[in-house]
Specification:
By secondary structure, this protein is α+β, with helices and mostly antiparallel strands. Helix content is 13%, strand content 28%. It starts with 5 loop residues before the first helix and ends in a 44-residue tail after the last strand.
């Protein structure tokens, strides 16, 4: 049996996203947007954006409010943070949880935000390897649903999660839905 390469794995995930956007009744696109949809635009896959790091839980699990894309206040808990080196710089992002839930939430902005990527920032899933070790693969960074049209209301980005580097990984700007790259 042939081992699937990392790049092939990410490409298959991207193909599934395109298919879901095009055909799923749960697609964030409107019926009109689906008619012209040619595929999502992604940055080239680069394994340097797959980060394995130690997740360090905050001693005090402080609840914070973050405004949504429609200006509504949403409550989150500052759960943990992780640090990583990228682009010659030490970076730190905080991981949030929703009060009384176990889901780890990571939303961020970087120097591509509003230019090459969605103006409201992007999200990325966290893979938990152990109680304190995680994998964050920015090649899988995606736009919140509100990036596609105004019917969605999405969580904002905590001020602490604004990186001072360009993170050219994952999904590109939302208005590129008619072209692929």
């Amino acid at each position: 049996m042939t081992k699937v390469s990392y790049i092939e794995k990410i490409e298959k995930i991207r193909e599934r996203h395109n298919k879901a956007f095009r055909k799923s009744p749960n697609s964030p696109l409107t019926a009109e947007q689906k008619q012209d949809f040619k595929g999502l635009s992604f940055f080239p896959i680069d394994e340097k954006f797959k980060i394995t790091a130690k997740m360090k839980k905050f001693d005090e699990q402080e609840e914070i409010a973050i405004l949504s894309s429609k200006g509504e206040e949403r409550k989150y808990v500052r759960h943990a943070y992780f640090e990583f080196d990228l682009e010659g710089q030490k970076n730190r992002l905080i991981i949030l949880t929703i009060p009384n839930q176990n889901y780890l939430f990571l939303a961020f902005k970087d120097n591509t935000t509003g230019k090459e990527t969605y103006k409201g920032g992007r999200y990325v899933e966290i893979e938990k390897l152990s109680d304190n070790e995680i994998v964050v693969d920015f090649n899988l960074a995606y736009n919140p649903l509100c990036a596609y049209n105004d019917r969605w209301n999405c969580a904002g980005i905590p001020d602490e999660n604004i990186l001072q580097i360009p993170l050219r990984a994952g999904l590109k700007k939302y208005d590129d839905y008619r072209t692929t790259s």
